[in-house]
Design brief:
about 180 residues, alpha/beta, six-stranded mixed β-sheet, 4 helices
Length: about 180
């Protein structure tokens, strides 16, 4: 499986707002993730959100979105390790991740190490036609404090929408598995 990471923390770079107006805190009831509009569109996203918000998860989620159809210019079939003709349809999602403990990613080197480990675990997954991009961002977890978080972008493709969906579902499962393993 293809995976990469990068820092995007300077200047006008986007930030993760944990307490945004539509925030739904899934930490106390992770099963509520299955009732989010994005989960109604793509149930595998709801399952991933539920798994990422359980009490023993190293992270919790602040925001997500799902894109059922990506245009040809919005992804690169080569970066998804897609065979010739295997990228007719594409879809994707993102999940904003924040550390379960305020001390988890205090220093940039800590979140960098976590991202490298996650990518290493994902590279070992024999899954093509998809990728995960981890973007380290500034995060506002409390109104008066700034920390670091990760926006995880998952993209998949296939010869059909159903094939792309099946691959994205597998990629989400592999990602949540890797995230749990990386923090142990």
């Amino acid at each position: 499986m293809e995976a990469d990471w990068e820092f995007e923390v300077g200047g006008d770079a986007p930030v993760i707002e944990a307490l945004w107006a539509g925030f739904v805190d899934l930490r106390s009831q992770p099963e509520r993730a299955r009732h989010l509009p994005q989960a109604a569109q793509f149930p595998a996203l709801g399952e991933a959100l539920s798994r990422l918000n359980v009490a023993d998860s190293p992270v919790w989620t602040a925001k997500c979105d799902f894109w059922p159809h990506l245009e040809a210019g919005e992804f690169d079939p080569d970066e998804l390790d897609a065979p010739s003709g295997g990228a007719t349809h594409a879809m994707g999602c993102y999940i904003d991740l924040l550390p379960r403990s305020d001390q988890q990613w205090v220093l940039p080197a800590m979140v960098e190490k976590a991202c490298k480990r996650i990518c290493g675990l994902l590279h070992a997954v024999p899954l093509g036609c998809c990728r995960v991009d981890l973007v380290i961002r500034r995060a506002f977890i409390t109104p008066d404090g700034m920390d670091l978080g990760i926006t995880a972008y998952l993209t998949s493709c296939g010869e059909s929408s159903a094939a792309a969906a099946k691959t994205l579902e597998a990629a989400l499962a592999a990602f949540t598995d890797a995230l749990g393993t990386a923090q142990r």
